[in-house]
Structure formats: C-alpha cells, structure tokens
C-alpha cells in the first residue's frame, strides 16, 4: 500500500477526526498532499522557513547584502574615474547592475551550501517522508531565492543612488531593472540547485561555480567597457549571460536600446531553465531519498 | 624479595622533532585541503581578471605600463590568500580541540605556533612563485637588478609572514571559522581594493585619495615598485619598514593574547 493511499484510508476510516489541542495543527479536512492547494500552502510555509534561515544566517546575509554593497562602492571609487574617462558615462550605470547580478549569483551559492548541509543532516529525507507535497520544498527554495534577490536588488539600487545611479526612465523602467535581476537570478539559481543536488555533497561544486562566477564578474561590460577588452575576447564578453543583463539594466536606467540585449537575456534564462529544471527535480528526489 | 624493577626512562622530548612533525602535518593539510591549488590559481586569476579588462584604459595614461604597475598587488594579494588560509586553519584547529590537546602534551607552547608559521611560509613561497609566473606571463619584467629584485621579494615575504602570523592569531581568537573568514576577508578586500595597487592615487576621488595613498597596502606596493624600477630610496621605503615594525608588534600582541586566552 502506498503512503498516499494509507493516508486516505486512515482519513476515510475516521471522517470526524479533529484536533482541538492547537488551532494550527493539521486536521482531517486539510487538503491531500498531492493537490495544488497543499502544494501552495506548504510551499508558503517552507518558503518562510528558508527566509527565516537566511535572515538568521549572519554570514549568508553579509555575503548577500553587505559585501555586494561594499564592492559596489569600491568599484566606483577605484575604477569610476578610469571608466568615466573612457566611456564618458558615469560608471555607476555599469557597476550597480554588475553588483546586483554578482550578489544574486553568490547568494545562490550560499543557498547551495545550505542545501548540501540539510541533505547531509537528513533534513531533506525527513521532509520527503512527511505528508508534504513532493514539490513544495524545491518550490520553496526557488521562491525564497527570488525573495532574497528582490530584497538584495532593492537594497543595492538604493545604495546605488548614493554613488550616482539614477532612474531617468521612470517607474516602469525601474521595475524592469528588478525584473531582469529576478529573471537572471532565477535561471542561475536553478542551475546551481541542479548541480548541487546532482553531485555528491562532498564534491567541490560550489568552489567551481564560484570560480566561474568570479571570472564572469570581471569579463563583462559592467566592470570595464566592451571596447577595452582585446578584440578576440569582445564577442565572448558581449554574449556571456551577464553582459546583456547589465546592458538592459543600464538602458532601463539611463536610456538606450533594449531589444537586442533583452532577447539575449531571455534566451540565456530560457536555456538555463530548460536545461536545469528537470535535473533539479530529479536530483532533488534522489538527494532526499539517498541513504 | 622482588627483583628490582628497572624504571622506564621517559622518552626524550625533542622540540625540533615535534616542530618537524607538526610542520609536516600542516603541509599535508595544505595539500589535502586544496589550498596549494588555490595558491597556484589565485595569482593567475587575479592577473588575468585585472590586467585584461583594464590594460587598454590604464596604458593610455602617460608613462604607464600596466603589467609593471600591477605586479606588486598580484604578489600582495597572493600573500593575503595565504593569510586567509592560515587563519582558517588555526581556527579549525581551535574548533577541533587540537590546540587544547597540544597544551596537555609535553610540548613547548612555541612549537605549534612555529610549526604553523613554517607551514604558512612554505605556502607563501609557493604562492609568491606563482604570482611571479603570472606577472611574467602578463608582461612584467624585473628592472631593478639583483638588489632591487631581492628588495622587492624581501618586502613581499616580510609582509606575508607578518600578516600570516596576525591571521593565525586571529584564527585562534575567533569564535568560529565563519567569523574568522569575515574577520580576515573584509580588511583584505577593503585595503586591497582601496590601494594604489590597481590604479594610481591620482585616479581616486579627492576625498579618499589621502587614505588610498597612505594605507599600508599602498605603501608596500609603492616600495615594491621602487625596488623593481631601481628607484628605491629611504624616504620611499621607510613607511614600509615602519608598517612592518607595527605589524610585528601587533602580531606579538595578538599571539600573546591568544596564548593567554587559551590558558584561561
């Protein structure tokens, strides 16, 4: 007999069962775990858990908010004049989007470390055998990542105002900047999540992704103008995932063409989501049921 | 009457053997944890990530050869990576209770400190060697003759050893490896970036230029550049010497404090 049918049998055997000890405890009329209602309710609860863990984890919070804000100020101070001399534009319009995306990437890696820790301690397995919707915890992790990216983006945009970043194109364009950050962050988070659950907990997956992300952080149009890179490298820099996202955010803030770079961002995001969503789902199940 | 029992003579305690055993342990740990790989990759990564994107912009300034300019900060950042790993190692030892175990053994308190210092020195030499290779690849060349080149590496090694000892002591004092990471990481990030290592002081905004010019990493970079191009004079090198004396005093104070606290 499967776990679900056993639960159903128990429910039908005692249709009048209610729990009065505490109002928030489950009752017999709570939705079955495989329904959309259960998935929604449980995803919200588990998202809250993820965000609580994030807020209580001082080092991750620092990595997500303080370090990017500090990096933003330092890039502006150290390279601001050099970049402005070359491009004729305030370097903040490249630095702020760059740091927002970097914050999203490194925050995702902190989440992957936490996932591996929870996997090693058996928490994933424990959640898997409880009457909880199978997809709820994975959905919760993605939602928590999106909330984290949203909060970090808003904080960094506010910090960006202090170094000369301005929203010259109105409120919708400002919302678009946040939207691009969320799209990029979600795609990257899905990739990191898929790689984390499909490798051994001891595998150096996070350091390797960190190395890749760090290289991307220096080879994009937010760190240095595209024409400053050697000719042979310019096509690579122009088309790596960060550059189009930075250029869209720059254009949404200060004006300029958007379409081509937005298409590139959507293609990159769709590609990452298409490639990594199914492996993330399968890998999560394997990670939860591993003994 | 029982036959007399020969008393077993206590084993000879040799501090040198203990130091060697603990140094070997430290070096094996460095290899096993992948720190040696990081010591090789980090300088190359730093050289590539700053030189390629910034070279064309920086070389446009009169008299600037960015490969020559960048070499000191590549070496100093390599030194800082060694310091970070030193702090993490001593912090992990503290967390695992190894330092407590050493204290109850017939071992001089100086031995574990000296052994960790020796392991750090080995990692430092490896890291500086690869920083040199990375710098040579991007186009740096030593122009200061034998004396200048010796002076250049003397600064890098002195700073490296002193900062490693400070990091080691901070690792012993910190409450956890995570807090150690941030305790070390933040000053390294700030002092490294806000220095004349990457761009000249003239390119900084006026409000922060005095700090950027006079902070220790800038002074070390300037002294190393002076040694490298053969223009080292006492007024240029003096701030580095004074900073090193200050770092030595800080290292001694922190080690003393760490030892005192560990015996409390």
TrEMBL record, chain A:
One of its GO terms (molecular function) is ABC-type transporter activity. The keyword Transport applies. It is found in: Cell membrane; Membrane. Belongs to the ABC-2 integral membrane protein family. Residues 1-22 have a biased composition (Low complexity). Its main location: membrane. This is Transport permease protein. GO terms for biological process: response to antibiotic.
From TrEMBL, chain B:
Keywords: Antibiotic resistance, Membrane, Transmembrane, Transmembrane helix. GO terms for cellular component: ATP-binding cassette (ABC) transporter complex. Residues 17-226 form the ABC-2 type transporter transmembrane domain. It is a multi-pass membrane protein. Pfam families: ABC2_membrane (PF01061). It is found in: Membrane. GO terms for molecular function: ABC-type transporter activity. This is Doxorubicin resistance ABC transporter permease protein DrrB. The gene is drrB_6.
């Amino acid at each position: 007999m499967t776990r679900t049918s056993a639960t159903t049998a128990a429910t039908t055997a005692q249709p009048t069962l209610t729990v009065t000890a505490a109002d928030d405890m489950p009752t017999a009329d709570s939705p079955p775990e495989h329904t959309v209602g259960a998935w929604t309710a449980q995803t919200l609860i588990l998202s809250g858990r993820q965000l609580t863990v994030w807020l209580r984890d001082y080092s991750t919070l620092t990595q997500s908010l303080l370090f990017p804000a500090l990096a933003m100020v330092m890039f502006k101070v150290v390279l601001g004049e050099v970049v402005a001399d070359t491009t004729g534009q305030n370097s903040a319009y490249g630095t702020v989007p760059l740091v927002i995306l970097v914050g999203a990437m490194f925050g995702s890696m902190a989440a992957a470390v936490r996932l591996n820790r929870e996997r090693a301690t058996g928490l994933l397995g424990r959640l898997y055998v409880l009457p909880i919707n199978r997809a709820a915890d994975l959905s919760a992790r993605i939602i928590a990542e999106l909330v984290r990216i949203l909060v970090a983006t808003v904080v960094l945009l506010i910090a960006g105002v202090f170094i000369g970043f301005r929203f010259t194109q109105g409120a919708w364009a400002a919302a678009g900047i946040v939207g691009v950050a969320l799209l990029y962050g979600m795609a990257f988070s899905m990739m990191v999540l898929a790689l984390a659950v499909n490798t051994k907990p001891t595998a150096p997956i996070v350091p390797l992704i960190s190395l890749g992300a760090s290289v991307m952080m220096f080879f994009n149009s937010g760190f240095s103008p595209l024409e400053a890179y050697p000719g042979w490298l310019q096509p690579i820099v122009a088309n790596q995932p960060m550059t189009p996202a930075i250029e869209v955010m720059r254009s949404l803030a200060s004006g300029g063409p958007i379409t081509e770079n937005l298409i590139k961002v959507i293609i990159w995001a769709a590609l990452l989501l298409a490639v990594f969503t199914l492996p993330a789902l399968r890998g999560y199940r394997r990670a939860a049921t591993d003994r | 009457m029982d036959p007399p029992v020969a008393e077993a003579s206590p084993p000879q305690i040799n501090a040198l053997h203990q130091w060697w055993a603990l140094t070997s342990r430290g070096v094996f740990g460095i290899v096993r944890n992948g720190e040696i790989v990081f010591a090789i990759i980090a300088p190359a990564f730093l050289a590539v990530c700053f030189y390629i994107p910034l070279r064309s912009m920086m070389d446009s300034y009169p008299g600037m050869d960015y490969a020559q300019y960048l070499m000191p900060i590549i070496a100093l950042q390599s030194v800082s990576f060694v310091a970070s790993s030193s702090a993490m190692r001593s912090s992990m030892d503290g967390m695992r209770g190894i330092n407590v175990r050493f204290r109850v053994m017939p071992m001089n308190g100086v031995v574990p400190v000296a052994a960790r210092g020796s392991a750090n020195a080995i990692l430092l030499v490896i890291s500086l060697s690869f920083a040199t290779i990375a710098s040579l690849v991007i186009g740096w060349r030593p122009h200061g003759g034998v004396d200048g080149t010796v002076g250049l590496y003397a600064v890098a090694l002195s700073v490296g050893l002193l900062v490693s000892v400070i990091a080691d002591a901070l690792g012993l004092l910190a409450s956890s490896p995570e807090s150690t990471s941030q305790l070390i990481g933040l000053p390294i990030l700030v002092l490294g970036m806000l220095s004349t290592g990457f761009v000249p002081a003239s390119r900084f905004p006026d409000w922060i230029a005095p700090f950027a010019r006079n902070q220790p990493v800038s002074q070390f970079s300037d002294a190393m550049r002076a040694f490298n191009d053969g223009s080292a004079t006492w007024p240029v090198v003096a701030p580095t010497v004074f900073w090193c004396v200050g770092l030595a005093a800080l290292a001694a104070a922190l080690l003393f404090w760490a030892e005192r606290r560990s015996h409390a």
